[in-house]
Amino acid sequence: MKLFIMFFLLGTSSLFAIEVNSQTMKVSIHHNNSKISEILNDIENQSDYLFFYNHKEIKSDTKASINVEDKTVSYVLDKLFKDTDVKYSMLNNHIVLSTNISINTVIKNGEKQQSKEITGTVKDENSEPLAGVTVLVKGTTSGTVTDENGKFMIRVQNNQSITLIFSLLGFIVQEVKVGDKTEVHVMMQEDQKLLDEVIVVGYGTQKRSDLIGSVASVSQKDLGGRATLTVQDALQGKVPGVMVSQNNGQPGSTPTVRIRGIGTLNNNDPLYIVDGVPISNGADIINNKDIESIEILKDAASASIYGSRAGNGVIIITTKKGMSGKPTVFYDGNIGYHEASKQLDLLNAKDFAMISDEALVNGGKDPYWKGSTGRADTDWQSKIFRKGLIHSHSVGVRGGKQDIRYYLAAGYDDQQGTLRETNYNRYSIKSNLDVNVSKRLIVGMNLSYLYSTSLDIEQGANSVLMNAVRMPATVPAYNEDGTLGYPVGNEGDGQNPIGYAKRSKSRSNSARGLVNIYAKYEFFKGLLLHSNFSADIWNGDYSRFSPTFNEGNAKNQIASLSESYSKNKNITFENTLSYNKTLDKAHQISALIGQSIITFDEKSTSASKKGFISNDENMRYFNAGTEQDQVSGSRGDWALLSYFGRVNYNFDNRYLFQFNVRTDGSSRFGPNNKWGVFPSVALGWRLSEEKFLKNTNWLSNLKLRASYGALGTMPSSYYGFTSSLNQSKYILGTSQNVVIGYHPGSTNNDDFKWETTYQTNAGVDVGLWDNKLSFTIEYFNKYTKDILQTLPIPGIAGTGSSLTNIGEMRNRGVEVTVNYTNQINGFNYYISGNIATLNNKIMKLFDNDAPISSGNCRTEVGRSIGEFYGYVTDGLFQNQAEIDAYKLQPLAKPGDVRFKDTDGNGKLDAEDMDFLGSPIPSVTYSLNLGCDYKNIDLSLSLLGVGGNKIYYSGRSYLINGGNTFNKSTEILNRWQKEGDKTSIPRVSVTNANDNFRRSDLFIEDGSYLRLGNIQLGYSVSSQWLNKIGFQTMRMYISANNLVTFTKYKGYDPEISISNALNGGNDQITYPVPRTVLFGLSFTL
What we know:
single chain, mainly beta, Immunoglobulin-like
């Protein structure tokens, strides 16, 4: 960490030494018969000015000669454009060139009485101000241009028929009728025929029009206004084929991301790239407010450049950089609250006592409550849930000049959990610095640092929330003397959730720093060397103290302390050499070759001790314990050496070709398969550029593309190919002495190799009416071979199991994206939506395709991975005659569950268990709507999934009348007498029929439609901002997860599928909250 701090101080020490002095900036220009564009580029390189002009108006290919030494830019331009109709306007560090337009409109004296002043702003589709937009009064030569904040002022005749024309290179020309308005606000849309979006891809960039792989983009605008701490949160519902699911509602928890399904039995997480650097262990080093854009590489053509680490897809994160211009100070923050979006319907004290006594009587026992309602009527959910305060702040500065550009930001996030005793704090620092050392050499440094602290409580089957749900309402939260209430008698042995939350509290701290130093050297035009060195270092620690307590039926007599520490270091050194060349205007060729070296080292230590004599916080250290220490530790390292290359060819902007290949050598594999090769090929055809379609007015873009290639997946185990020794304790002889001994842990496998995914992708991109309407349709087929499985070894062999390449799996589906944007009389709106289908199928497993069982799930050839597996119910027995006739459940009573004999063999056993549905959605979709008028903007986002099931294991407690826990109000609809139509079995303290075994009684529809976000914003008028010295200011109110439409009875249908073999299980999971935020952002 000292190394990181040193780099950070060096990188930021020069940021504020920059002074922009545009008016006195002098340049030396020497050109003989050079193109105007070359002369303007030379001025940009020697000054902090940027030129804006329309190529149709300014003939930049015209040649001119000029020789001046140490003169101002104004002098150079006056001389350059002398005796021409080119005029210029200098707006801070922007220079706008135009022709035949009077930049500062002069109204004749006789017309001033009949004129009025029009002010306004011009922004792009991301609500960013546009500088240099020409604003022309239609039918005249009067006009002006917008300044660097997108603002303009123009005086026009007071005539209802006046129309303003807004134009800027790369944007669609817009006409706005003024009427009686004095303020006009315009959103300009990009014209893809003139300006093509640049997309970040592996080790470079590409124009969107040239892209033939499957790459989706998420802009910085899409990240704003939501209480999202992670990149994964920000992606939810934004990209078809990318499923994001929250693991729980714990503040700071990392969601699960699956790109085009689950492709392996092992780790399915995508690879993250931050500013060109591969990042291990997710992307938790980045504050979302520092992100400029995110690209998701979904197919082999786009991802194979990353080879063996790209099998689950690649997410490329580009952070904000400095820009030429005077320093801009910015703030972006919000404050609000979040709360549980739903509470379960549970029994009150009266109904709990009634159901409990009925269960006792039905089980042949005496009632306990006998009409009493106990000591209290406690709503435990209201005692454990709370309205949590959340706030987030980011402040920084951004600027630079022609030779140096900088971005520096600091962030702070605080989220108080919706459950007691949970909280998350995060501090972040981000610095990016780019320096033009010479015309050929650019060096830079990207620095990130993040420190977080998380307070968590017990999760899982015995979680604090589970205790709150199951605690009878008859138990008081507090006794009359102020001590915690606890269950007695027939109220079970659960812990008071308030006390349990405090006792089970754990603290996790994490510190992570990333430094990335790079250099770019252009040998000559088109040939660029890019070298990059990065160090990613993160440390973490965890601590939990379990105190003694005695609360009636619940107690702990031995206090314990557990702590763990981890250190991780990832070093990356990469070099690429790229070449770009255009021949005869029709042949565009680009090529890239590269080399990468990655080393990773990790070390962890865990320790625990029992027998603490006091619960005092000052006594929570290991020396205060009396029992033997339990200490364990591990260390691991791995390395990756890679060579890669890419060739792109574009003929006449019509026919596109791309070839990628990467070869990786990894220390994780044995001698027979140390190296893997991962190629891909892609073809594209832009039909819209063909002569027979090029001049159509309605067709803006039509492109067909297809790709095929191979991607790899490395195993989680660093040493899976080699044999290992395990340590065990043995008792030998009559002395009963414990002796440490060793035995084989696993056998070596020299043929241990990569998992390889072969992916086919085909798509069509269509744009209509200047791309106001655009849509993309894609089909993909992923086939993964050599999936690693743990091969069982008979116990007689005297060794443990080993990993073997055996399994095969297929994922295929269709993805559709539709976008529509339009403007009507200053009212701008957009509609975008996407939908994706997914079909997962296991094709091969080990041991003659023997199925894999895990928890409530089973994986079998011919079916989806990790499907729920259990008994199939067939209603309830209504009378003894039905039981006698069925014969398979002789211990049943009327009102008990009837289970099907699915195999028809005349007996009910494990062979009758069947597949009950998949936790993987077969359909995911989202719809995004937005509009703005003048200073007001509104956006709305809907997202949903369909076709998946949830195993609601918590319901097995909530409808089980035989236990001493509280119940769901569903149980009021239980079976009581013959003829009752219900699926809830009778209540009884006896359960000879095993009514609550794993079955479809707990399978529920996991489909949902959620209002993911709604946001209303207001941008303060420039007239007011000018008075207080602000450039821009926007305020907004935003709500996340406002309402969810679902049939699911649990807290939240968004259940994690992070465990490929056993996902979709809800054990009363910490629910994802509803959030309301008030936000403010401004620039100075």
